[in-house]
What we know:
Number of strands: 9
Helix content: 10-25%
Order of helices and strands: HHHEEEEEEEEE
Amino acid sequence: MTTPPPTGSRHPAASRRSARRAARSRTGRVRLRTPGLILGLVILGLACAGVAAAGVAGQPSTVIIESAPASKRPPAFETSSVAEHSAPRHSEPAPPPVTSAHVRYELVGPPLAGFVAFSAARPGLVEPASPVQLPWRTEFDASQGFIPTITAQNAGDGAISCRITVDGAVVSDVTSDGEYGVATCTGNVIAGD
Length: 193
Protein backbone atom coordinates (compact mmCIF):
# COMPACT_ATOMS: atom_id res chain seq x y z
CA MET A 1 0.00 0.00 0.00
CA THR A 2 1.42 3.35 -1.04
CA THR A 3 1.10 6.34 1.20
CA PRO A 4 0.72 9.84 -0.18
CA PRO A 5 3.62 12.22 0.27
CA PRO A 6 3.34 14.11 3.51
CA THR A 7 2.38 17.76 3.34
CA GLY A 8 3.45 20.33 5.78
CA SER A 9 6.78 21.78 6.80
CA ARG A 10 8.84 18.90 5.39
CA HIS A 11 7.56 19.51 1.78
CA PRO A 12 7.12 23.26 1.26
CA ALA A 13 6.65 22.98 -2.55
CA ALA A 14 3.73 20.57 -2.14
CA SER A 15 2.05 22.81 0.39
CA ARG A 16 2.43 25.86 -1.92
CA ARG A 17 0.85 23.91 -4.81
CA SER A 18 -2.10 22.82 -2.72
CA ALA A 19 -2.56 26.40 -1.47
CA ARG A 20 -2.61 27.66 -5.07
CA ARG A 21 -5.15 25.01 -6.07
CA ALA A 22 -7.37 25.96 -3.16
CA ALA A 23 -7.09 29.66 -4.08
CA ARG A 24 -7.96 28.88 -7.71
CA SER A 25 -11.04 26.92 -6.74
CA ARG A 26 -12.23 29.81 -4.56
CA THR A 27 -11.64 32.62 -7.12
CA GLY A 28 -12.11 30.71 -10.37
CA ARG A 29 -9.06 32.43 -11.84
CA VAL A 30 -5.89 30.91 -13.19
CA ARG A 31 -2.70 32.77 -12.47
CA LEU A 32 -0.03 32.67 -15.16
CA ARG A 33 3.41 31.97 -13.85
CA THR A 34 5.38 33.70 -16.59
CA PRO A 35 4.86 37.43 -17.20
CA GLY A 36 6.98 37.06 -20.35
CA LEU A 37 4.36 34.74 -21.79
CA ILE A 38 1.68 37.39 -21.32
CA LEU A 39 3.88 40.04 -22.92
CA GLY A 40 4.65 37.74 -25.86
CA LEU A 41 0.95 37.02 -26.44
CA VAL A 42 0.13 40.75 -26.35
CA ILE A 43 2.88 41.54 -28.87
CA LEU A 44 1.75 38.68 -31.15
CA GLY A 45 -1.85 39.90 -30.99
CA LEU A 46 -0.83 43.47 -31.87
CA ALA A 47 1.31 42.27 -34.77
CA CYS A 48 -1.58 40.19 -36.16
CA ALA A 49 -3.94 43.14 -35.79
CA GLY A 50 -1.49 45.39 -37.65
CA VAL A 51 -1.15 42.92 -40.55
CA ALA A 52 -4.93 42.46 -40.70
CA ALA A 53 -5.50 46.22 -40.66
CA ALA A 54 -3.01 46.68 -43.50
CA GLY A 55 -4.78 43.97 -45.50
CA VAL A 56 -8.18 45.53 -44.89
CA ALA A 57 -6.92 48.96 -45.88
CA GLY A 58 -5.54 47.48 -49.10
CA GLN A 59 -2.01 48.56 -48.27
CA PRO A 60 0.69 45.93 -47.96
CA SER A 61 2.65 46.07 -44.75
CA THR A 62 6.34 46.84 -45.16
CA VAL A 63 9.11 45.86 -42.79
CA ILE A 64 12.47 47.57 -43.24
CA ILE A 65 15.43 46.00 -41.52
CA GLU A 66 18.73 47.79 -41.73
CA SER A 67 21.55 45.60 -40.59
CA ALA A 68 24.47 46.99 -42.55
CA PRO A 69 25.58 50.53 -43.39
CA ALA A 70 24.54 51.80 -46.81
CA SER A 71 28.11 51.48 -48.13
CA LYS A 72 28.18 47.71 -47.46
CA ARG A 73 24.69 46.89 -48.76
CA PRO A 74 24.30 45.29 -52.19
CA PRO A 75 23.03 47.65 -54.88
CA ALA A 76 19.25 48.00 -54.91
CA PHE A 77 17.30 46.58 -57.78
CA GLU A 78 15.80 49.14 -60.06
CA THR A 79 12.11 48.86 -60.61
CA SER A 80 10.42 49.43 -63.91
CA SER A 81 6.98 48.86 -65.22
CA VAL A 82 6.04 45.83 -67.27
CA ALA A 83 5.20 48.08 -70.21
CA GLU A 84 8.86 49.15 -70.52
CA HIS A 85 9.94 45.54 -71.12
CA SER A 86 7.08 44.39 -73.30
CA ALA A 87 6.94 44.37 -77.06
CA PRO A 88 7.16 47.68 -78.89
CA ARG A 89 3.98 49.67 -78.75
CA HIS A 90 1.83 49.96 -81.79
CA SER A 91 -1.29 51.95 -82.04
CA GLU A 92 -4.18 49.98 -80.56
CA PRO A 93 -6.85 49.09 -83.07
CA ALA A 94 -10.15 50.79 -82.44
CA PRO A 95 -12.72 48.51 -80.82
CA PRO A 96 -15.23 47.18 -83.29
CA PRO A 97 -18.44 49.15 -83.39
CA VAL A 98 -21.24 47.68 -81.32
CA THR A 99 -23.70 46.21 -83.73
CA SER A 100 -27.32 46.27 -82.87
CA ALA A 101 -30.48 44.80 -84.25
CA HIS A 102 -34.05 46.00 -84.09
CA VAL A 103 -36.20 43.49 -82.18
CA ARG A 104 -40.01 43.37 -82.21
CA TYR A 105 -42.21 41.14 -80.02
CA GLU A 106 -45.87 40.64 -80.93
CA LEU A 107 -48.73 38.79 -79.20
CA VAL A 108 -52.16 38.05 -80.68
CA GLY A 109 -55.06 35.97 -79.45
CA PRO A 110 -58.01 36.31 -77.10
CA PRO A 111 -58.74 39.71 -75.55
CA LEU A 112 -56.36 39.19 -72.59
CA ALA A 113 -53.09 37.44 -71.80
CA GLY A 114 -52.84 36.45 -68.15
CA PHE A 115 -49.03 36.48 -68.08
CA VAL A 116 -46.32 37.96 -70.33
CA ALA A 117 -42.53 37.95 -69.79
CA PHE A 118 -39.77 38.82 -72.26
CA SER A 119 -36.05 39.48 -72.41
CA ALA A 120 -35.25 43.12 -73.11
CA ALA A 121 -32.15 45.07 -74.09
CA ARG A 122 -31.13 45.27 -70.42
CA PRO A 123 -30.38 42.14 -68.31
CA GLY A 124 -33.29 40.24 -66.80
CA LEU A 125 -36.87 39.56 -67.76
CA VAL A 126 -39.54 42.22 -68.11
CA GLU A 127 -43.06 41.42 -66.97
CA PRO A 128 -45.71 43.96 -67.95
CA ALA A 129 -48.59 44.40 -65.52
CA SER A 130 -51.07 41.54 -65.93
CA PRO A 131 -53.46 41.07 -67.58
CA VAL A 132 -52.16 42.37 -70.92
CA GLN A 133 -54.61 43.60 -73.54
CA LEU A 134 -54.11 41.77 -76.88
CA PRO A 135 -52.98 42.40 -79.59
CA TRP A 136 -49.77 43.66 -77.99
CA ARG A 137 -46.32 44.57 -79.29
CA THR A 138 -43.08 46.20 -78.18
CA GLU A 139 -39.88 47.15 -80.06
CA PHE A 140 -36.32 48.03 -79.07
CA ASP A 141 -32.72 47.88 -80.29
CA ALA A 142 -30.56 45.08 -78.89
CA SER A 143 -26.79 44.67 -79.03
CA GLN A 144 -24.65 41.75 -80.14
CA GLY A 145 -25.02 38.64 -77.96
CA PHE A 146 -28.68 39.27 -77.07
CA ILE A 147 -31.11 36.31 -77.21
CA PRO A 148 -34.69 37.44 -77.93
CA THR A 149 -37.29 35.48 -75.91
CA ILE A 150 -40.97 36.01 -75.06
CA THR A 151 -43.52 33.89 -73.17
CA ALA A 152 -47.26 34.55 -72.91
CA GLN A 153 -50.08 32.65 -71.23
CA ASN A 154 -53.75 32.75 -72.14
CA ALA A 155 -56.09 34.31 -69.55
CA GLY A 156 -58.73 31.76 -70.47
CA ASP A 157 -59.64 29.70 -73.54
CA GLY A 158 -58.53 30.13 -77.15
CA ALA A 159 -55.32 30.33 -79.16
CA ILE A 160 -52.48 32.69 -78.24
CA SER A 161 -49.58 33.42 -80.59
CA CYS A 162 -46.17 35.04 -80.14
CA ARG A 163 -43.84 36.31 -82.86
CA ILE A 164 -40.27 37.63 -82.80
CA THR A 165 -38.96 39.77 -85.64
CA VAL A 166 -35.28 40.80 -85.84
CA ASP A 167 -34.40 43.51 -88.39
CA GLY A 168 -37.69 42.85 -90.20
CA ALA A 169 -37.25 39.06 -90.50
CA VAL A 170 -39.48 36.68 -88.51
CA VAL A 171 -37.20 34.43 -86.42
CA SER A 172 -39.86 32.69 -84.30
CA ASP A 173 -43.64 32.28 -84.53
CA VAL A 174 -45.48 29.97 -82.08
CA THR A 175 -49.19 29.39 -81.40
CA SER A 176 -50.67 27.59 -78.39
CA ASP A 177 -54.33 26.57 -78.29
CA GLY A 178 -56.36 25.61 -75.25
CA GLU A 179 -57.37 26.81 -71.83
CA TYR A 180 -54.51 28.76 -70.20
CA GLY A 181 -52.21 27.78 -73.07
CA VAL A 182 -48.61 29.04 -73.05
CA ALA A 183 -46.72 30.22 -76.16
CA THR A 184 -42.95 30.72 -76.00
CA CYS A 185 -40.85 32.17 -78.81
CA THR A 186 -37.03 32.25 -78.81
CA GLY A 187 -34.73 33.63 -81.47
CA ASN A 188 -31.06 33.03 -82.19
CA VAL A 189 -28.25 34.98 -80.56
CA ILE A 190 -27.83 38.33 -82.28
CA ALA A 191 -24.37 38.18 -83.86
CA GLY A 192 -22.10 40.90 -85.16
CA ASP A 193 -21.41 41.42 -88.82
